[in-house]
Design a protein that fits this description.
Rna Polymerase Sigma Factor, Chain: A, 2 domains, 9 helices, Arc Repressor Mutant, subunit A, about 200 residues, single chain, mainly alpha
């Protein structure tokens, strides 16, 4: 019997297309953590992350069933692209992303010049944020929970205390240790925070 870990994504995709339902389950389990973190890093909302995650795999299943999958050997990047597009759709629907109407006096440079960061700096900054977010997952569970609630969900320490069932002082302490440990991880992984 071949270990589930040794079976290639492309083999599992082929097996699923041929009717072996359990192959998709292996694929989902194999990539769910990474995909979930990717989606959450963009939307910063647990419920929305769940929805986008579900919609991603509904789209994956439909595409595979239709027989229009042709990303041979690149299953994860393909799934990530689907998730990314669904995240963009979510922002468009919720009007949290600027949309520009096409008109004669439309000037692309007015949009590009709008931001204080140029494209390259913005990409570097996004990569730094992404690297730091990955490191957050290396923190002990209690510290990670408080840090995510405070930094990414903008919750007060009173709200964190109520949500976690610990005192405000304990929540503050966990946050302090989370930041100390995060700083150590940033140094260990040699992430340069300023450019």
């Amino acid at each position: 019997m071949v270990s589930k870990e040794l079976v290639l994504d492309s083999t599992l995709v082929s097996q699923y297309i041929q009717g072996k339902e359990s192959s998709l389950e292996i694929l989902i389990k194999r990539h769910q953590q990474r995909l979930y973190r990717f989606i959450y890093s963009k939307v910063q909302d647990k419920d929305v992350t769940e929805d986008v995650f579900q919609d991603t795999f509904i789209k994956v299943i439909r595409t595979l069933k239709k027989g229009s999958y042709n990303e041979e050997g690149k299953f994860l990047p393909w799934v990530m692209r689907i998730a990314h597009n669904l995240v963009i759709d979510y922002f468009r629907k919720s009007k949290r992303m600027p949309s520009f109407k096409n008109s004669d006096d439309f000037d692309i440079f007015s949009i590009i010049g709008d931001g204080s960061l140029n494209v390259e700096k913005k990409m570097i900054q996004e990569q730094i944020y992404s690297d730091v977010r990955e490191l957050v997952y290396e923190l002990p569970e209690e510290q990670k929970e408080v840090l995510i609630m405070r930094m990414y969900r903008d919750m007060s320490f009173k709200e964190i205390s109520e949500n976690t069932g610990v005192s405000i002082n304990t929540a503050l302490g966990r946050m302090r240790y989370a930041l100390i440990n995060l700083r150590k991880l940033i140094e260990k992984h040699k992430i340069v925070l300023v450019n």
